[in-house]
């Protein structure tokens, strides 16, 4: 399972570079706004931090303007994946950009049928939002199970990119379901590392080691 990091904060991304825990990055207009930076600059900088796909989202709602924005964004760096919303215009834009060889991430997916449409439009990634479904009383992971099954039925090459991940249990569930990618804030990746028994065990080992008076080097 690949891990994408869901942030436009380059300091956080630089801290994860070289750890093997960052296979790509996702951003959205809210994250770009939070960075307080010009979008083209921050996307270019993120693309210099990772070789993996970096999702940059269009903000137009009509096909023609989305296409222009998508072509502009993909020209920023070779590893830009253009993110489009799951609307009719977004799917149309996905088809054109995908046919041109651009990676497209179709975002704001909340149903399995929407995911089916994105695969048919040639998306490289579909982003079902599990946390936002949980927020309104659904089980977001049911959607992931459905999409993984449907894509498997037809050998679609579109990767299931589990989005709106909020905590480590989401990551575990997505991995058990065989999702290709999970995108998560840096805090969730850090939470995955931590275990109280790891801390306790290490503390005991180091205390015993100190009693030997040895040093390895
Ligand atoms: C990913 O591409 C999305 O931008 C992100 O996962 C949304 O997460 P949120 O629902 O926590 O805002």
TrEMBL record:
PROSITE patterns: TRANSALDOLASE_1. SUPFAM superfamilies: Aldolase. Pfam families: TAL_FSA. Signal peptide: none annotated. Its main location: cytoplasm. It is found in: Cytoplasm. The keyword ATP-binding does not apply. InterPro entries: Aldolase_TIM, TAL/FSA, Transaldolase_3B, Transaldolase_3B/F6P_aldolase, Transaldolase_AS, TSA/FSA_arc/bac. Pathway: Carbohydrate degradation; pentose phosphate pathway; D-glyceraldehyde 3-phosphate and beta-D-fructose 6-phosphate from D-ribose 5-phosphate and D-xylulose 5-phosphate (non-oxidative stage): step 2/3. The keyword Kinase does not apply. It catalyses: D-sedoheptulose 7-phosphate + D-glyceraldehyde 3-phosphate = D-erythrose 4-phosphate + beta-D-fructose 6-phosphate. PANTHER family: FRUCTOSE-6-PHOSPHATE ALDOLASE 1-RELATED, TRANSALDOLASE. Belongs to the transaldolase family. Type 3B subfamily. This is Probable transaldolase. It comes from Roseococcus pinisoli.
